[in-house]
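Complex record, two chains
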Amino acid sequence: MSFAFPSPDHMPCPQCGASIPAAGGPEAHACDEERRLDYRLVEFRPGIERVADDLAEWLETPHGRFARWLAEHDRRRPAA
Amino acid sequence: MDANASGSKRLIEEVFGSGNYELADELVAPGAVGHDPAQPAPVTGPEGVKESARGYRSAFPDLSFTIDQTVAEGEYVACRWTSRGTHKGELFGIAATGKEATVTGISIDRWQNGKIVESWVNWDALGLLQQLGAVPTAVQST
């Protein structure tokens, strides 16, 4: 015995996420560039949100602590 | 369109569709009970309606509704609607996908003394989950 869920009338475009009628198929739809970029950004958001945490973690390593010290050292050095 | 039908339409379009939450105080009776299978418990009173609307709108900030048909009979009003929105916040444990979804549903409200006292809604939750990629579609599952 097999079972399959019915398909919805609309499905998101795989490229831009816009809701498009399933009957027309993706070829009947043209992606809006701004929406396409927004949609891609959602995919990358977890990585973007991790950057601050990764940086904070790295700044506590010996390399990171030295980089902070050096940056502060350079900032205080009088301009030549 | 009679006043009850107009009120049911406004609840969907303005409270859920535009985020005009305070309108629920005008349209929903204290102690009113709403039955939405997608909610873990009955929605109670204007505050329950506001919380429900806020929940859906936090997941779909651009949520909008089109009323496709309204039928009024006695103290009951039925609305057949289509909603559309972009998934930008968590819903049912699903993190934002950025996908736009189109979902249909039917709401039935019972009115007394100018306010909704009970509501029943059935909407295509399965279709929404499929559009968000949380449940396979027929094509994917064969």
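Note: Chain A has two helices and two strands.
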